Amino acid sequence: MDPSTMSPSATEHDFPIPRECPFAPPPRYAELLEHEPISQVTLPGGRKAWLVARHDLVRQLMVDRGLSSNLAHPNYPMILQLPPEVLVKQQEFGQALINADPPEHTERRQMVQAEFTSRRMRELRSRIQEIVDDHLDAMLAGPQPADLVADLAVPVASMVISELLGVPAADRKSFQDNTRLMAHPTSTPQDSVRANRELGEYFASLVASKQAAPGEDLLSRLVTRNEETGVFTPQLLVGITQQLLLAGFETTASMIALGTLALLENPEQQAAFTGDPELAPNAVEELLRYLTIVSAVYRVTTADIKLGETTIRAGEGVIALVGAANWDPAEFDSPEKLDTARPRPHHMSFGYGIHQCIGQNLARIELEVVYRTLFTRVPTLHSAAALDELPFKKTSPFYGLWEFPVSW
């Protein structure tokens, strides 16, 4: 990396920067926003990458055609130190969509995007409500304290995406367990390798079953359409299935639990939310901004990109610091305050540009239904543990809670 490309104010910092407050981004982010909106950082393993913090610069970066999400690029800014077998599989499956670039990404996304329109997702609202009610009934009938993660957040998010894609009910717990095992801080490298292998084998068998006997589900429609278009190879078809299932429940489950905790810790906002049903859509957007469970987007450049006075050269790693951009005071008034009445914030919690989350319409409806149902039906809900006793997902790609004991 050429030091001459650095702006005069840019310095090196270790990254990632840990949170100090369960809800707020690291205090260092505020310093970066004010003094060093573009800087260089040192990643685990010693590799360098550019860090972009300011809201306007992150938006500019994420739509630049010189940006690539190719995980296999030698300068891609890797944060997680994955076992080689897991990394290879992630690279293979990632090329299906998340880590693909145009023109391949464009036609693959078009194949899937039609299944996640606002209209289609709104049609699922009544079924989502049934799923939430059923799991909440079961949680309320069980012992206290309950675990909001295991008893509500994970099963609701998993069941919604599983039904949508056509995953048999008997298979759901297995892929939930393996997904958790891959990221849990107590997992060994051997655990991660085994869980990754079993997930790959399962998704391959699921695709094969849809090819042999298509149903009325999303995955069956995608498989049938792909037989006509040939957009996905067999391997990439397995990859897109994995991406839709895992991303579809991991992020939403994390937001359900963490958003509930945030509202409980801000009782005036909880009261405003429950007192005005029309506030739900705004509250969801504000919680997405405030919490930013995916705080950074990792990319590599394929051409020179100029941001302000800084030029990022082709072939350099770059990190869009969404967690800072979503708390940028130049974009949001008093960003440190959770304000459920805030006019729809232009947050980037679903990403920005061509890789913006394809399932965002589904996630919004799920979160709205869960929060509104939970606080309406259980007005006495409260945490059964002190805030500093809760196990937060500090090392997971999706910030949240491993467990959340609650009583009522």
From TrEMBL:
PROSITE patterns given in the database record: CYTOCHROME_P450 (PS00086)
InterPro entries hit by this protein: Cyt_P450, Cyt_P450_B, Cyt_P450_CS, Cyt_P450_sf
UniProt feature, compositional bias: Polar residues: 1-10
Keywords in alphabetical order: Heme, Iron, Metal-binding, Monooxygenase, Oxidoreductase
Region (Disordered): 1-21
Family the entry assigns: Belongs to the cytochrome P450 family.
This protein's name: Cytochrome P450
Species assigned in the record: Streptomyces iranensis
Record lineage: Bacteria, Bacillati, Actinomycetota, Actinomycetes, Kitasatosporales
